Amino acid sequence: MTATVEYDQIHAIAQEVFAAMVDGDLGLLLPWDGDLPDIVDALVAWVDLHGEWSGRAVLVTGSDTAHDLARVLLGLDDGDAVSRADLVDAFGEIANVVGGNLKSLLPTPGTLGLPQVGDVLPPLAGAARVQHLPLSWRGRLLVVDVWVTLPTATSEGTS
Amino acid sequence: MIRVLVTDDSRVMRQIVIRTLRQAGYDWDVREASDGAEALAAIQADEPDVVLSDWNMPNMTGIELLRNLRAAGYQTPFGFVTSEGSPEMRSTAQEAGALFLIAKPFTAEGFREVIDPVLA
Q1: Hey, of A97, A98, A102, which one would you mutate to test binding to chain B, going by the most B CBs within 10 A of its CB?
Q2: What is the pLDDT of residues B23-52, one digit of tens each?
Q3: Total number of domains in chain B
Q4: Could you tell me whether strands A127-137 and A29-31 are parallel, antiparallel, or unpaired per DSSP bridges?
Q5: Measured distance CA(A74)–CA(B49) in Å, rounded
Q6: Which of A158, A151, A144 is nearest to A57 (CA)?
Q7: Residues of B near A (CB-CB distance < 8 A)?
């Protein structure tokens, strides 16, 4: 069984997370307007959800943008150096909070994994992407995706 | 001065929690632990006035930390600061003896709304 996860719900979660943790303003994470540019030097953060509803919340952005996000979260100035450990910690924590709030939307109990960060997203067996949100954070592309593990009896249908 | 132990496996989140405590007006003495096991040892060595803990952590989760504390006789005031705020988790936290659960993302106002009544 899979519950529907609406685009607007995911956008609202992402907006709330960025408003509280990053910007202090709800209006700074907007739908991307126009053609999608390639993400250069991508960084990917994800957290898996397990239970009757199983899936994955994923954030993707460019390394420069992830560095800026980490600086904001750490209270650093523009241009301050960010270690790889802090970069991974900060970007992973954003994915963790998005995933936790996604889990709170679900009608059935489950568990949340620990956040992971890498340069590429590893495959999630039997999963399909059910939401794809290209967003603009301060004019830079940040993508939020939601994947759902499909029932094994069927290979189609994602609701 | 109130002494708080902030427990989270994310150093970034510990910093955010500590910053938010200050923004909320709590000029507390802060110690940090990076998972439940480290927190349990820190509490046994020197019991703080309050523990703020993440839920989902490696080695020992926040709920395991709370249950271990209560089983060992510690009644240290305990609150969760976690990315999951479902009714199920709030119920589990309360049954284990937590005073409150603050869901991430949070604000300084949200901290005050939850923590002020506990301090009163």
Answers
A1: A97
A2: 999 999 999 999 999 999 999 999 999 999
A3: 1
A4: antiparallel
A5: 26
A6: A144
A7: 9-13, 15-16, 19, 56, 58, 82-86, 88, 103-107
Chain B nearest-CA residue for A101: B84
Give B12→chain A minimum CA distance, Å: 6
Please check whether residue A49 lies inside any domain of the structure. yes
pTM of the model: 0.91
Query: Is A132 a member of any domain?
Result: yes
Q: What total of structural domains would you count in chain A?
A: 1
Q: Evaluate whether residue A18 is within a structural domain.
A: yes
Rounded to whole angstroms, the Cα distance separating B34 from B57 reads 8
**Which of A90, A87, A82, A102 lies closest to A144 in space, CA to CA?**
A102
Whole-angstrom distance, CA of residue A112 vs CA of residue A156: 25
**Mean pLDDT of chain B, nearest integer:** 96
**By residue range, what is the domain housing residue A140?**
7-22+38-149
Structure tokens at A82: 């960010």
CATH number where A14 lies: 3.40.1550.10
- How close is the nearest chain A Cα to the Cα of B104, in Å? 6
CATH number of the structural domain spanning residue B70? 3.40.50.2300
Could you list the beta-strand ranges (E) of B1-120: 3-7, 29-33, 50-53, 78-82, 100-103
pLDDT of A24-83, one tens digit each? 887 789 999 999 999 989 999 999 999 999 999 999 999 999 999 999 999 999 989 999
SS3 assignment for A26-75:
HHHEEECCCCCCCCCCEEEEEEEEEECCCEEEEEEEEHHHHHHHHHHHHC
Q: Which of A2-11, A27-36, A57-66, B98-107 has the lowest mean pLDDT?
A: A2-11
Q: Is residue A28 a part of any domain in this protein?
A: no
Provide the ipTM.
0.89
